[in-house]
UniProtKB/TrEMBL annotation:
<keyword id="KW-0969">Cilium</keyword>
<dbReference type="GO" id="GO:0009288">
    <property type="term" value="C:bacterial-type flagellum"/>
</dbReference>
<dbReference type="InterPro" id="IPR046358">
    <property type="entry name" value="Flagellin_C"/>
</dbReference>
<keyword id="KW-0282">Flagellum</keyword>
<dbReference type="GO" id="GO:0005576">
    <property type="term" value="C:extracellular region"/>
</dbReference>
<keyword id="KW-0975">Bacterial flagellum</keyword>
<feature type="domain" description="Flagellin C-terminal">
    <location>
        <begin position="489"/>
        <end position="573"/>
    </location>
</feature>
<dbReference type="InterPro" id="IPR001029">
    <property type="entry name" value="Flagellin_N"/>
</dbReference>
<dbReference type="GO" id="GO:0005198">
    <property type="term" value="F:structural molecule activity"/>
</dbReference>
<comment type="function">
    <text>Flagellin is the subunit protein which polymerizes to form the filaments of bacterial flagella.</text>
</comment>
<keyword id="KW-0966">Cell projection</keyword>
<feature type="domain" description="Flagellin N-terminal">
    <location>
        <begin position="5"/>
        <end position="141"/>
    </location>
</feature>
<dbReference type="InterPro" id="IPR001492">
    <property type="entry name" value="Flagellin"/>
</dbReference>
<keyword id="KW-0964">Secreted</keyword>
<comment type="similarity">
    <text>Belongs to the bacterial flagellin family.</text>
</comment>
<dbReference type="Pfam" id="PF00669">
    <property type="entry name" value="Flagellin_N"/>
</dbReference>
<dbReference type="InterPro" id="IPR042187">
    <property type="entry name" value="Flagellin_C_sub2"/>
</dbReference>
Length: 574
């Protein structure tokens, strides 16, 4: 071995080993102080990737547990409200039983009915006000396909609430839907006599005064009464389905009209309802109550009847007599012609030519109008007000009979044939309300009144209708013995509907409890697996730490010894 001064290889070796020992000692200190085996990607790149995926799954599962617990709290809120509704229904059933007996007078039943109506209103209030974290629970907002009114008064379509708890987005494994049906008094069939339907974005609705109608859990609407008949439908069919969610676009599917005494459904073409014409000019008079009527002025050679052509328009032809004529076209193109009870429906008649100098006189009973205008061929207009009448010239292109929000068009063509067009509903400045008002039980032909406001030029939508099988639902009042007796069975159905809702909620809650248990087990096992990959084994690491600490001390001592070796060369020199 050479004795040199410039290079000390033994010191270099000792220094390198000391640095290695210090590095290993630093890693052990970091692991022991953090408790983690993997503190950076350099410690274990593959292990770090697996650990982070497991951590993401664990945190997602834990949030899923919280989501499920929130859903349980929501369900318990809804169930608590339903328990209060249960008390109201039981009390209503008791009141209906009391009013159903014959030992009470109608005046006494009216007093009983006051509490009955209060209970019904309270059910609707609970339905509208019960919410969880701003989410309405019982007003149909969580019922798939139902319609409900939001806080701003806008009509919305309900949808089931989705509870998400899994780590992915699979519909069967990671989430499921909770649906809570509408339990308002109207939906349960025990409502009051007021139902509001919004027609379009302008907030316009129509007022109907007739038999009360109620909506069931399927969104179907039922007519109040003991199996009222619908003309032209199979026996026992009284249901009318209001498709409120389809009311955005203007249509002429169906429109309310004043004083309907009976209704007949006819095909879109070829059948006529007769109407008497015995004058030569059209006159309109508004009485002190604001009712507009068409009066007779002069004579004519023949009477005419009102025929429906293929285009869904009404034309005048020869025939018998009738009154209160009105037409609507449904979604399938069928025309419903409504006439009075003493009217006739003859075969299709031929249109009559009113002549170059003549016009028609039409008498329509019970139509509540405010203003009558006629538009001549040159564009000029005439107005008819209370107590004043005037002739319509033969060359007039159209005559509009307009209430504030109702327009009826009479057109006289170039061949002199007079045509009555379809009725349209126009947008009002302040809107109007659709109310299903109290009427006698079983009255299928109750009259309807249209209440309107200031007119404008824009048409709005009406509602489509279809027939379905009837069912028993409670009326709007137990002020009569018959109404109270009908309410007993209907309230029982309402209780069953409410119990069905509560049973569904209980099933949802039990399912969520099972889901929570499963999620917690998954989270526990994933956490254990992640710990085995990521966490440090303290006993093993402490053994390594002690070893590296000893090596570090030895390397330090040897480095000191190696650094002293060049001093021996000085002895030889000196």
């Amino acid at each position: 071995m050479s004795l040199i001064i410039n290079n000390n290889s033994m010191a270099n070796t000792a220094a390198r080993n000391l640095n290695t020992a210090y590095k290993q000692l630093t890693e052990s200190t970091e692991r022991l102080s953090s408790g983690m085996r993997i503190n950076s990607a350099a410690d274990d790149a593959a292990g770090l990737a697996v650990r982070e995926m497991m951590r993401a799954q664990v945190t997602t599962l834990n949030q899923g547990v919280r989501n499920a617990n929130d859903a349980i709290s929501m369900i318990q809120t809804a169930d608590g409200a339903l328990s209060v509704i249960d008390e109201k229904l039981i009390r209503m059933n008791e009141l209906a039983e009391q009013a159903a007996t014959g030992t009470y007078t109608d005046e006494q039943r009216a007093i009983i009915d006051q509490e009955y109506q209060t209970m019904a209103d309270e059910i609707t209030r609970i339905s509208d006000s019960t919410d969880f974290n701003g989410q309405n629970l019982l007003n149909g907002a969580l019922e798939e396909g139902s319609s409900y009114e939001d806080a701003d008064g806008n009509t919305q379509t309900g949808s089931a609430l989705t509870v998400h708890f899994g780590t992915g987005n699979d519909a069967d494994e990671d989430k499921y839907s909770i649906e809570i049906e509408d339990v308002s008094s109207g939906a349960l069939g025990v409502g009051s006599d007021s139902l509001d339907y919004e027609i379009n974005d302008e907030g316009l609705v129509t007022t109907k005064d007739g038999n009360a109608i109620y909506q069931n859990e399927n969104g179907d609407v039922y007519i109040e009464g003991d199996d009222p008949a619908v003309t032209g439908a199979p026996a026992g069919y009284t249901q009318v389905q209001l498709q409120k969610k389809d009311l955005a676009d203007p249509t002429a599917d169906d429109t309310a009209i004043a004083e309907l005494e009976s209704q007949v459904t006819i095909p879109a073409a070829g059948t006529a309802g007769a109407i008497t014409v015995d004058g030569s000019s059209i006159h309109g008079t508004i009485d002190a109550d604001g009712n507009l009527s068409y009066s007779v002025d002069g004579t004519a050679d023949a009477t005419t009847d009102l025929a429906v052509n293929a285009a869904g328009e009404l034309t005048f032809g020869t025939g018998g007599t009738a009154k209160a004529v009105y037409t609507t076209t449904d979604a399938d193109g069928n025309v419903s012609l409504k006439v009075s009870a003493d009217g006739t429906i003859p075969e299709a008649g031929t249109a009559v030519d009113v002549g170059a100098d003549g016009s028609l006189t039409v008498n329509v009973d019970g139509v509540d109008q405010k203003l009558l205008t006629s538009t001549a061929a040159d564009g000029s207009a005439k107005y008819f007000i209370a107590g004043v009448s005037s002739d319509v010239p033969a060359d007039a292109s159209a005559m509009n009979v307009a209430a504030d929000s109702v327009e009826q068009n009479f057109e006289v063509g170039s061949d002199g044939v007079a045509t009555l067009g379809a009725v349209t509903v126009q947008k009002g400045a302040t809107g109007y309300g659709l109310t299903a008002a109290t009427a006698g039980a079983g009255a299928a032909d109750a009259s309807f009144e249209m209440t309107v406001t200031t007119a404008s030029d824009e048409e709005i939508a009406s509602f489509e209708q279809e027939l379905g099988k009837t069912d028993e639902y409670a009326g709007s009042s137990i002020a009569t013995q018959e109404g109270a007796q009908a309410a007993l069975g209907a309230i029982q159905k309402a209780i069953e509907m409410k119990d069905k809702n509560r049973a569904n909620l209980g099933a949802y809650e039990n399912r969520l409890e099972a889901t929570i248990s499963n999620l917690e087990i998954q989270s526990e096992n994933l956490s254990a697996a992640e710990s085995r990959i990521s966490d440090v084994d303290v006993a093993t690491e402490m053994t390594e730490y002690t070893l590296r600490q000893t090596i570090s001390q030895a390397a330090t001592s040897m480095l000191a010894q190696a650094n002293s070796l060049p001093q021996n060369a000085l002895k030889l020199i000196g």
